[in-house]
Amino acid sequence: MKIYVDYDDCICETARAFSVFAEKLFGKKVPYEQVKYFNLQDAFELSDEQYDLLMIEGHRPEVLLSFEETPGASKVLNEWLDKGYEVSIITGRPNSVYDASRRWLDEHGLSRLKMCCLDKYGRDTFLKGSSFNLSLEDYYKMHFDFAVEDSPRAFKFFDHLPELKVKVFDRPWNRQCEFPNDNFSRCSGWDQIREEVK
Question: Beta partners for 17?
């Protein structure tokens, strides 16, 4: 069994942290349940300059390391690894935060997980020769049986896998989206994902 798992808002509570951060930096009070857009610039109604600052400040190592784990994530992921499943974290985070992201995984008991940075959103440059950057060309050669993802903008990265079952982690910004096909199903948390990935 090969499983793709997204990082932010699937295994850690990134948007909740950024909601607090946007209020602290700019006085933009948008409670987590009202974060209606995956794009945080739109979600918090930020100027280009404010958004750039949010991304810089929010990607500092000490900030990334402070994010809370999504309840049940490490338990289920370790259960899968114990069963011999091949689990890969495929994140849209920039490669510049790989070290802090890797450390967060290690500190949450997920040191056995492989993590790769894939430029899902056109925000990064590819570091040639890196062991953790994944080119689109190499990504499209990979096969997965299941995927756990929260971002509708990432659904297009599954088009090459017609049999893939995608578990869409329920978040405010994906509740109004239409799923591409019947292989996509909404899951409320890791207990439900565990039951459906068998």
Answer: none
Asked if 95 and 133 count as a contact pair (C-beta separation under 8 A), the reply is yes
User: How many other C-beta atoms are found inside a 10 Å radius of the C-beta of residue 129?
Assistant: 6
DSSP letter string, 49-95: HHHHHHHHHHTSHHHHTTPPBPTTHHHHHHHHHHTT-EEEEEE-S-G
Task: Quote the pTM value.
Answer: 0.92
Distance separating alpha carbons of residues 182 and 53, to the nearest angstrom: 39
Task: Report the distance separating Cα 115 and Cα 112, nearest Å.
Answer: 10
The CA distances from residue 176 to 80, 147, 151, 159, 172, in Å, are: 30, 20, 12, 20, 8
- pLDDT, tens digit, 9 for 90 and up, residues 56-92: 889 999 999 999 999 999 999 999 999 999 999 999 9
Intra-chain end-to-end CA distance of the chain, in Å: 9
Residues 6+ apart with CB under 8 A from 121: 92, 153
DSSP category for residue 104: H
Q: Which two tokens stand for residue 27?
A: 């006085």
Q: How many helices (H) and strands (E) does the chain have?
A: 8, 6
Q: Residue holding tokens 């950024």?
A: 18
Name, in order, each residue with C-beta under 8 angstroms of 109's C-beta and a sequence gap of 6 or more: 74, 78
* Kind plus residue range of the DSSP H or E element containing 26: helix 14-26
